[in-house]
Amino acid sequence: MKRRILIKLLEESGWYLKRNGGDHDIYTDGNKCEPIPRHPDIKERLANKIIKKHNLK
Q: Quick check: pTM over 0.70?
């Protein structure tokens, strides 16, 4: 999955960029945090896990 698609799903659900880490960007909804790798393509398995974990669809 493209990174920008996953970030778009997060932002549409109210998540926002909290800070930049070393190899990840940290997104939060105010309560929970999720590190998103800074690769152009994120492995499908990881992307699906994040989507399912936060009910993003």
A: yes
> Rounded CA gap, 30 and 15, in Å?
8
- Confidence (pLDDT) at 55: 92
| DSSP SS3 for 2 | strand
For residues 43 and 49, give the distance between their C-alpha atoms in angstroms, rounded to a whole number: 10
Bridge partner list, 27: 17, 34
Measured CA to CA, the distance from residue 18 to residue 46 in angstroms comes to 20
- How far does Cα 5 stand from its chain's mean position? 9
pLDDT higher than 90, residue 21: no
The H or E element containing residue 27 is: strand 24-28
